[in-house]
Amino acid sequence: MNYFYNKKNVKDYISMSEGYDGTDLIEVLKKHLPSDSTLLELGMGPGRDLDILSKIYKTTGSDYSEVFLELYKERNKFSELLELDAVNIQTNRKFDCIYSNKVLHHLTIKDLKKSFIRQSEVLNNNGILFHSFWYGDKEDYHRGLRFVYYNQETISKCIGSEFKVLELKQYDELSEDDSFYIVLRKWAV
């Protein structure tokens, strides 16, 4: 996962992903999460979704790549950013929502389970998780990055009993039904 530690790789990714953002996903999120809620974005990358989310919610962006964080901070000096990995999520803060768009697919199934446990600890009671994934049942590597494709069955095994599924839907990103999002609510403790 050292691919995004390299500034050239980050800039290549930003160029390659131009024109893609989570506008449609954020419209779904708005049905489940009131405006002005606190939100942590895991793996913000170039920050396109964070820009949109910040207009609606009290946002904190995060990425494990210091390069992404530095480039975003150059354009958005007053943004709140944390250097976090998506498994351990080293913060003492709590949020109403944790959001990611095609980030958690870089984790192994074992690490995704750990991430959901940690997300539960960082999420307020009745808080919302919103994550999107590539749909399928395989694991690939591209440019040294792991891509784990999930489906309803495999994602269900990772979630844990502290969450209730509010919505799970496949959608088209690059091809028909190649992606899905899941919206989860944390049970009150």
Which short descriptors sum up this protein?
single chain, 189 residues, alpha/beta, Rossmann fold, 7-stranded mixed beta sheet, two-stranded antiparallel sheet, 6 helices, 30% strand, globular
Blueprint (SSEs and pairs):
Blueprint: H1 7-16, H2 23-32, E1 38-41, H3 48-53, E2 58-63, H4 66-75, E3 81-83, E4 95-101, H5 109-122, E5 123-134, E6 139-142, E7 145-148, H6 152-159, E8 163-171, E9 179-186
Parallel strand pairs: 1-2, 1-4, 2-3, 4-5
Antiparallel strand pairs: 5-9, 6-7, 8-9
Q: How would you sum up this structure, described in words?
A:
The protein is 31% helix and 30% strand. The longest helix has 14 residues, at 109-122. It contains six helices and nine strands. A hairpin with a 2-residue loop joins strand 6 (139-142) and strand 7. The radius of gyration is 15 Å and the shape is globular. Helix 5 (109-122) crosses helix 6 (152-159). The termini are far apart.
Under the CATH scheme, which class?
A: Alpha Beta
The fraction of residues in strands falls at 25-35%
* CATH level-3 fold name: Rossmann fold
User: Helix coverage percent of residues?
Assistant: 25-40%
Gyration radius, in Å: 15 Å
String of helices and strands: HHEHEHEEHEEEHEE
Strand line-up of the largest beta sheet: 3-2-1-4-5-9-8
Number of helices: 6
Specify the CATH homologous superfamily. Answer: Vaccinia Virus protein VP39
Sheet of most strands: 7 strands, mixed
Give the tally of structural domains. 1
Unreliable segments of 5+ consecutive residues:
none
Mean pLDDT across the residues is: 94
The CATH architecture is 3-Layer(aba) Sandwich
Distance between the termini: 35 Å
Cα shape: globular
